[in-house]
Amino acid sequence: MTDLFLETTGFTREEFVGHDALTLLSRSAVEDAPVEDGGDDALAEAIQRLLDADTIAVETVETEIPTADGDTASFTLDLVSRPSDEEFRGSVGVHPTESEQEIRDRELWVKTHAMDDADIALCLSDPNRPDNPLIYVNKGFEEVTGYTASEAIGQNCRFLQGEETDPETVDQLREAVDEGEPASVELKNYRKDGTPFWNRVEVVPIRDESGDIVHFLGSQRDITERKQREQQLREQREQLLALDQLNRVIRGINSALVSMSTREEVEEIVCERLADSSSYAAAWIGEVNSARGTITPRASAGIDTASLSSETESLDATDGERASPAMRATRSQEVEVVTDVEDEPDSEWRSWALENGYRSVAAVPIGFQEFQYDVLTIYSSREHGFTGQERDAVAQLREIVGHAINAIERKEALLDNIVVQLEFVMRDPESPLFAATDGSDCTVTYERTIPLADDKAIQFIRVHGMGWEEVRTALTDDPSVDHARVVSEREDGCLVEIRSPETPITSKLAGYGGQVVEAVVEDGEFRVVVEVPHEIDLREIATAVQRAYPDAELVAQRSTTRSVQTLKQFQSALASRLTDKQQAALEAAFAAGYFTWPRESTGEEIAEGLGIAPATFHEHLRNGLSQLLGASLEGADRSD
After folding, report:
1. Checking DSSP bridges between strand 483-490 and strand 336-338, what pairing results, if any?
2. Coil, strand or helix: which one is 480?
3. SS3 of 515, please?
4. Do the beta carbons of residue 185 and residue 179 sit within 8 Å?
5. Contact status, residue 445 vs residue 604, Cβ threshold 8 Å
6. How far, in Å, are 327, 350, 363, 386 from residue 321 at the CA level?
7. Percent of the chain at pLDDT above 90?
8. Of residues 323, 540, 338, 565, the one with CA closest to residue 422
């Protein structure tokens, strides 16, 4: 309170400090004071209006103030309210016998002084001047926007707008100002240094005694943190929804793949299931040809493959940073994710993606082991998609789809009459078994390879010219063998079962749709002959083998015709009836002499090689034999 107020009322400062100001200012506090012209009601009503206001407001009330000597004095009360989350303040003016101009000056001083001290950004504009310029900003405005008062005054508030300011929200604010109505909006503005911030803008008109609008009072609140939290929560909800839907899609794809008989059907069902999900807009699969350096679209859903030229340019023609996700995934052999297309460098594919409303992209190389068949690209209209668990789930499609395509091609390979024989030669000077054959009459023939879980395998090798004790000594020093036992021993050699902790070359070649017809170690060299379908990319197989075994050399390539097609057809039909575990048990039992008499191996010995319990082995063997007999006898004429 000012000295002038204390002098006029006769109160001391101590009598006011710490007391309810409104009670002291109300003339109802004066004993026996007459009630005149509703003054108390006017003050109470003004106070109530301020309390009900959700933005800054000013009320001016003429009233009688009690004095220390029991009399009253006429005062004008200027009351200023703040929003509900801030304190309420009032200010007291001088006696109303001032001139009209003095009163207006005093009122302006009181109001601007109150706004200067406000904790939020405030500004006043004059709609009676061209372009409704700012005529006042407080310190809060300067702190929020970074502009000084001298830089802001004289400009329309639109100077805070920028590239990402929503024009519809701006129109909403402009319409309210044109109609003289209060408005409250949230829009993105920009500080002096160019950094964007979310601004809650509230505008109220200020009218004179005639009801004409003389100013607009605006307040700004930086709500960036709240907006960021809302955005994070929204993205988390979207990611959880996308993850749930993606898991459903993957389960649906797994179920559908069981009945698929061609590679084309597999690719089409994958694209359709992804595009049908509400989390994704489109998907397409392209075949990778490493020899030509191209990607050729094979299947799509939700997208026109004719428009994919920017995605399928030559693998060697595009700068790495500007290459499409499909190209980057093909080169890196890893899942490539673009969480926000707008953040990507300018390129043809980026422009095309934005034109189609795609905001995030994932590209997944589809393959089996080292062999790549396709690349799958998935588009979403969501920003910041394919992160965290969603990315991990998308990555699963590599193995799921790759395994399905590989199984189909292996089946086709068994039924294909025209094949290509590839002959590889490998040298491994660190292998004691290889070294034992160098310069001697000893040979090692790989008779059968049976793949196990975790890329392991057991192999049955026939050794000529070396006894079991010598073989065991050599295998003990071989780090590529973690289990070995003799199945049978003769004068000229022995049959040995070995297990490798790594995938052997014979298994890898079978994984590419090939059938190993010969695998022999002689004179320190390992020679492998494999038959593959004639339409397989031979360069891709050779590259994959040399990537896994750097010393491998392709020494021969020739076309041939399989002599016994009906046998392969039977094997294919049988393979479709057997589980992997049943087939492994049958093959291991057959190779280990379990069905000979006397038996060369017991069930316990074979189970140990397979890494399973004897009871489990016998169960798989029994079920496998049942399927084998069923495949052999079904359809036989029983009329005799």
Report:
1. unpaired
2. coil
3. strand
4. no
5. no
6. 10, 11, 15, 19
7. 28
8. 540
Residue with tokens 């479709």: 576
| Torsion on CA atoms 174, 180, 183, 189, rounded to nearest 10 | 30
pLDDT digits (tens, 9 = 90+) for 527-578: 988 888 766 667 777 777 777 778 888 888 776 766 544 555 566 666 677 8
Q: What pLDDT shows up at residue 233?
A: 80
* Spatial distance between the Cα atoms of 423 and 409, rounded to a whole number of angstroms: 20
The residue that leads in pLDDT, 288 or 239, is: 288
Residue whose entry in the numeric block shows the structure tokens 């890898």? 508
**Other residues' Cβ atoms within 10 Å of the Cβ of residue 523:** 13
- Residue 200 to residue 185: CA distance in whole angstroms: 6
Dist CA 402 CA 371 (whole Å): 9
Write out 563-614 in H/E/C secondary structure.
CCHHHHHHHHHHHHHCCHHHHHHHHHHHHCCCCCCCCCCCHHHHHHHHCCCH
**End-to-end CA separation in angstroms for the chain:** 122
Under 8 Å between Cβ of 310 and 348: yes
The overall pTM is greater than 0.70: no
Identify the residue whose tokens are 């309390």.
51
- pLDDT tens digit string along 94-142? 344 445 555 555 555 666 666 777 778 999 999 999 999 999 999 999 9
Cα distances from 622 to residues 448, 579, 617, in angstroms, run 21, 12, 9
Distance CA 373, CA 367 (A): 5
- Structure tokens belonging to residue 21: 């100001």
List of residues 6+ apart from 45 with CB closer than 8 A: none
CA 201 to chain centre: 34
Q: What is the dihedral of CA 395, 396, 398, 403, to 10 degrees?
A: 170
| Measured distance CA(379)–CA(388) in Å, rounded | 17
Rg (CA), the chain: 43
CA angle 168, 173, 174 (to 5 degrees): 95
**SS3 sequence of 358-398:** CCEEEEEEEEECCEEEEEEEEEECCCCCCCCHHHHHHHHHH
Residue 3, C-beta contacts closer than 8 angstroms, at least 6 positions apart: none
Measured distance CA(45)–CA(49) in Å, rounded: 6
Pairwise pLDDT comparison (284 vs 1), residue with the higher score: 284
284-318 residue pLDDT tens: 998 877 656 678 888 999 988 777 776 665 545 45
β-pairing verdict for 443-451 and 515-522: antiparallel
63 and 23 Cβ atoms separated by less than 8 Å = no
Contact call for residues 271 and 303 (beta carbons, < 8 A)? no
